[in-house]
Specification:
Helix 2 runs antiparallel to helix 6 and helix 18 crosses helix 19. The protein is 79% helix and 0% strand. With 433 residues, the protein is an all-alpha fold. It has 20 helices and no strands. The two termini are 29 Å apart. It folds into 2 domains: 189 residues, MFS general substrate transporter like domains (Growth Hormone, Chain: A, Up-down Bundle), CATH 1.20.1250; 200 residues, Growth Hormone, Chain: A (Up-down Bundle), CATH 1.20.1250. The radius of gyration is 22 Å and the shape is globular.
């Protein structure tokens, strides 16, 4: 049921968002991914609530969210090759069904008063099987939009949705747990996965996998190794991934220390949320702006935006942490968020440059690396905040990020990247570099 409204390879201008949304198969798949994302967050909050209720420990509650992060990394790195071995429709539907089964298991374990370690183990398994769905969705998008400029627009819509889905999942999850109890929230969670599975089953056509995956369990892990070698040997892909990882050092810092920034200086607590929202709102504005650019223009500006991105954060350390100066801090962090939008053409180019039969495992490995870098960046910012101050932590992380990006810029494969972008976005028959 996938459409071909976007089958013309190149167009004079960027296709409008309305036309992208009308592409048969995109909107239901987009909705399905969104509601399954809400389900992930509802499950995390429900289990975290029970852990806090039983232990009375904030640390144990925080550990619940840590447990939910690690399997996401492992799922993307170890299970994403499934998207290269099984038609992506089956991966998307199967992932939702399996996660729904684990929601039922968590609900049953709560009813029996099971030990917290069992709840955390089931949550770990639930999050683990979300990894291959992410890679399968990216492959689906490359098939839906053979007009690669429409693909870039669709990635912009998905990137905006990622920002909002996190907020929706956390807010709705908290409301549901408060209103219905943790078990009631899990019932809603089960419905999100069921709804997502139905939408993927109806809207997505089962297409055969490309390439010939290695047979058996040993072949499965051989495929992971082949994906890692392919990624490591592709200069353009390595450069894009390295830039993304290094930029994370600066991008994560404001969100990591926003709450300590206001608490350490006796500012109203609610201002912490306002500060945390600044780079998120900026990223939304940036994605809308970058989404209007032609792929060649957006790609050419990746490094410039990346170099500029950490600079506003450097001034955080010199601004007085007072209510009067807080609007300027907010503007600086907002500007950083706008400049973070270079990630949109970076990720779109990365997905298209990877050869079709390798997309699942390579996108999965890159996603796992990005999530790991984000976790490390949060820990680094938190440690610097405790050792020095929140403002100093933001500035120091920004300085590290700027230094790393500057080194990457010196080695940036501009000509190779330009050629890859031309092939990826203007020749729909080219599946990889």
């Amino acid at each position: 049921m996938e459409g071909d409204e976007m089958n013309s390879p190149a167009r004079a201008g960027m296709p409008p968002y309305a036309q992208v949304l009308r592409t048969t198969g995109f909107f239901p798949a987009f909705v399905a991914l969104s509601i399954s994302t809400w389900g992930d967050y509802i499950a995390r909050i429900a289990v975290a609530f029970v852990v806090r209720e039983r232990t009375g420990s904030d640390l144990a509650m925080a550990a619940t969210f840590t447990v939910s992060l690690l399997p996401s990394v492992l799922g993307r790195s170890l299970l994403s090759p499934l998207a290269d071995r099984i038609p992506y429709k089956h991966v998307l539907v199967g992932s939702d069904v399996i996660r729904g089964v684990f929601v039922l298991a968590i609900t049953a374990a709560m009813g029996q008063g099971s030990h917290i370690s069992i709840l955390l183990g089931l949550l770990f398994a639930l999050e683990l099987f979300g990894g291959p769905a992410n890679a399968a969705y990216q492959i689906l998008m490359t098939d839906l939009f053979t007009d690669r400029r429409a693909f870039l627009r669709a990635r912009g819509i998905s990137t905006l949705a990622e920002q909002f889905n996190q907020v929706i999942g956390l807010v709705v999850g908290g409301i549901i747990v408060t209103a219905l109890s943790a078990r009631g929230a899990l019932a809603v969670d089960l419905m999100t996965f069921a709804g997502s599975a139905v939408l993927f089953a109806v809207a997505v056509r089962a297409r055969p996998v490309r390439g010939e995956p290695s047979p058996g369990i040993i072949g499965f892990f051989r495929d992971i190794g082949e994906g890692a070698r392919y990624l490591a040997g592709h200069r353009v892909l390595v450069s894009l991934l390295v830039l993304s990882l290094i930029a994370t050092w600066g991008m994560a810092a404001p969100e990591a220390v926003a709450i300590p920034y206001v608490l350490d200086h006796d500012l109203p607590t609610w201002l912490g949320g306002v500060l945390m929202a600044a780079p998120v709102i900026g990223a939304v504005v940036g994605v809308i702006m970058v989404g209007r650019w032609q792929p060649e223009v957006a790609s050419a500006r990746i490094m410039t935006m990346a170099l500029l991105m950490p600079i506003p954060l450097l001034f955080t350390v010199v601004l007085p942490p007072t209510v009067e100066w807080l609007p300027l801090t907010w503007i600086l962090w907002f500007t950083c968020g706008v400049l973070q939008a270079f990630v949109l053409p970076l990720q779109a180019t990365f997905a298209l440059v990877v050869t079709a039969e390798m997309r699942g495992r390579v996108i999965g490995l890159a996603g796992a690396a990005t999530m790991t870098a984000s976790a490390v960046a949060y820990l680094l910012a938190g440690w610097l905040s405790e050792t020095f101050s929140p403002g100093a932590a933001v500035a120091m992380c920004a300085a590290l990020s700027l230094a790393g990006i500057s080194l990457t810029a010196a080695l940036w494969p501009r000509q190779s990247l330009d050629l890859a972008v031309q092939k990826a976005f203007n020749d729909s028959t080219v599946e990889g570099a």
